[in-house]
Amino acid sequence: MRHLLTDTNFRRLFTGRLVTNAGDSLYYVAAMWLVWELTHDPFYSGVAGFLTMGPSALQFLFGPLVDRWPLRRVLIGTQAFQAVLVLAIPLAAYTGHLSVWVVLAVMPLLALANQLVYPAQSAALPRIVDQADLVDANSAFSLAYQGVDLVFNAAAGAVVALAGAVALYAVDSLTFVAAALLFAGVHIPVAADEQPTAGTDGAGDPPADVAATDGGESSADDDAATGTVDDATTGTAPDGYLADLRAGLTVLRGSFLVLVLAGAAVVNFASGATMASLPAFADTVGGAGAYGTLMAGFAAGNLGGALVASRLDHLPFGKLNVAVFAVNGTLVAAAAVAATAGAPLLVVVALFALAFIPVGVGNVLLSSVVQAAVPESKLGRVSSLVGSASQFAIPFGTLAGGAVAGAFGPVAAIYVLAGAALLLAAYWLAVPALRTLPPVGDIDTLD
Length: 447
Prior knowledge:
By secondary structure, the protein is mostly helical. The chain has helices at residues 8-39, 42-53, 59-68, 71-85, 88-94, 100-128, 134-163, 165-183, 208-214, 219-226, 231-234, 238-252, 256-285, 288-309, 317-340, 345-355, 357-373, 379-391, 393-408, 411-430, 432-435.
């Protein structure tokens, strides 16, 4: 993994990912706690979760745009937009107009911007690293995501406890500015499966319109900057957009990825319910600091899984996932029992952290499976379809979790998550097309 950091493009993209994730962590903890602080009602926590997670179900709509627009500009533009928007909360507080409705209005707009960021990063990664390095690269990205969450979730909880949630929004704006500057230095080549054959363009260089249609960089990128009308601007016409969307669906249709997503919907619903109940649970055991600690526990488990994922990529992916979800469900159930019994907060956090180590492994390997199985020129739209399909149940889970926490207490949603994970393990075991999936390196490219 260390050799990847010697590549300037990867290093800048990776560092930008670190800073972006830091901003997301600060924002999420601040927003969810601010909603709870303003209302003390778990129902509103559920609504906040729905508005934050809901746009992820629309990610598939952004995939064709990611494949057509210059990826570097997508990354820079989204960070700049978020840097400005997040300042609405400190401004509202300063002018005396802060309310839960202002916070709820900002949340989905920031989340919508992120639906471009992560597919763009996923589409860029196979273009700047060799396929043999994809698992290591995805492990590094997952480490960035979970490692930053581990540190900044805990730090955010501490800052909220000391200075209040509004202060975090101002800091968050600076992280988005820093990420935009880092992404500005990344060069993303044309997709390999869109490269013209030798002699196509005289000297063998890719013609300008290739980069414009698949998100790479070429002279079309420069033309777009000066206002020249070419495929960079006309390629997003409705007919072309819908054709790209259909092409992504065609890749997925009938593949094993559809079965993967069907099972993920159930456990993601339960995960959303758990996330919505955590502010109410944390308030009973220690307040904002406890909330940050719980969120850090989730991140610690995923981080541990990301650390070991590259050492497990030789194992059959199907059987590994059976073990992943069985262990996760068992340990989440243990955490729920501990919480019900009044165990110390650190015991509950430790059980959560252990429960999500196998999930961290599975997430890294699944990203590598998608990148290995999908042609590069379609990766943006397919990644966004996969993201939407796997995430669409989470916002509805958060709404249900808020209602369940209000009616039965916040621990009830944790029991639901445990049961869903165990059901998912049984599902992977029962479906031959999933159970028999080979190691990541042996996955064939989909047509």
